[in-house]
Amino acid sequence: MTTSTIEPLEPADTDVAAPQARGRGSHAARWWILGVLALSQLMVVLDATVVNIALPAAQRSLEFSDADRQWVVTAYALAFGSLLLLGGRLSDLFGRRTTFLIGLSGFAIASAVGGAATSFEMLVAARAGQGVFGALLAPAALSLLTVTFTEPKERAKAFGVFGAIAGAGGAIGLLLGGMLTEWASWRWAMYVNLIFAAVAIVGAALLLAKHVTTDRPKLDIPGTLTVTAALFSIVYGFSQAESQGWGDSSTISWLAAGTILLAVFVYLQSRVANPLLPLRIVLDRTRGASYLAVFIVGAGMFAVFLFLTYYMQLILGFTPIMTGVAFLPMVAAMIASSVTSSQALLPRFGARILMTAGLLIGALGMGLLTQIEVDSSYALHILPGLVLMGLGLGASMATAFQGATSALAHEDAGVASAMVNTSQQVGGSIGTALLSTIAASAAASFASGKAVNELTAMQAAVSSYSATFWWATFIFLGGAVLTAVLLPNGVPEPSEGEPVIAH
């Protein structure tokens, strides 16, 4: 049992005046805590795209090959994806404040090492380190949010902001990466995390209460080892599929091993006394459907950030900074949609209607992007689709985040939050591998039998991007059907609160 060293807060209730009843200081502190948590989430989410934009410059500087380049991305994904559930459970067992601060500090140190890298090996090791500490940081941040905001209206606003950042962070990373690479150096794509981390560390140290454990925590070692190996195999298998193809023996072996290990993990969780991931967390309809929605959005969103970036830079001739600016309307729409839908629409229409509608609007926006041509214009052919995507997926993500962390006991908040990040990470890995394979096949099919020239190459590339957008459209449509069937149409219940504010 975890107890606080500070005076506990009164239990949360649904009364509008409850925040004032708990004291103006505590009420104000919660919103400062939201700022700290949102900043840490932004750092983790944008890190993927900010590094991707800087990768070509890093490759020239450190002189590594195209074949090696994927490891700068894969090292982070493997460490982050495979350790998330462990990181979430550690925050439950040893205290969210402690885990959060360790994650922030370690992420900052790894970023500093990456920025100072003098070799390819040093850069890859730093990226793996970012993944390890990110796996501690991300679940701790979301679980802190879950146990801090339990009053319905405040919870809606907080999760709207957090969901918007989770969805829009990748686009912000494109802009920031372009600015830093073009105006400074690729190394600042790593060093910038030191600024984010420093602010978040100071805020967390001042605002979050210290916790102590009265009972010795118990960790499910067999389950931890099994699921870590399973997630590693699955993420690595999909990275192999992207580079080697789906029929490659290595791809098949890793994915098969991951599937078997995952089945073993589920069996173990139903048998052990202190499971790493209690099955009650994922078998709840609201939480289970929300994890599925996060997975689907993660898979489809890569079509926007990856292939639309290629299209704007390689076909339309946008600079990295221009590309980042081009995504800002989507970011604005996503933030507005996340906050508005959580506060105004969710209580009125319920989670099923809102999440299903959001995925349908996202599918419509993605469908508009399938119409791009070599000579398309940004204002007519890209902007409308981006805005619709932002509106739809912002509503879906904010609702899914609330649903995925609803009705939890505080001792389960960390691992349940880790499931959100795991769903998003694995969904992104599958989406990247699947859509990259589709893009390559579509480009080869278009170019087959045609004269080899610059125009044909551009048309083949656009055909490949359009194909991925079609598939992403179908992914969102499928997600809308699944959430309409599986998700109960109510407002997700708040989780059990826990005193987290330092006095």
Automatic annotation (TrEMBL):
Q: Recite the UniProt keywords alphabetically.
A: Cell membrane, Membrane, Transmembrane, Transmembrane helix, Transport
Pfam families to which the protein is assigned, alphabetical: MFS_1
Which N-terminal stretch is annotated as signal sequence?
none
Q: Which residues cross the membrane?
A: 31-58, 70-88, 100-120, 132-149, 156-176, 188-209, 221-239, 251-268, 289-308, 314-337, 349-372, 378-401, 426-448, 468-487
Q: InterPro entries of this UniProt entry? A: EmrB-like (IPR004638), MFS (IPR011701), MFS_dom (IPR020846), MFS_trans_sf (IPR036259), Sugar_transporter_CS (IPR005829)
Residues of the region (Disordered) are: 1-21
Chief location of this protein within or outside the cell: membrane
- Top-level taxonomic group: Bacteria
Localization recorded for this chain is: Cell membrane
Q: Where is the Major facilitator superfamily (MFS) profile domain?
A: 33-496
Q: Which PANTHER family match?
A: BLR6921 PROTEIN (PTHR42718:SF46), MAJOR FACILITATOR SUPERFAMILY MULTIDRUG TRANSPORTER MFSC (PTHR42718)
From the Swiss-Prot or TrEMBL record, give the protein name. MFS transporter
- Annotated source species: Antrihabitans spumae
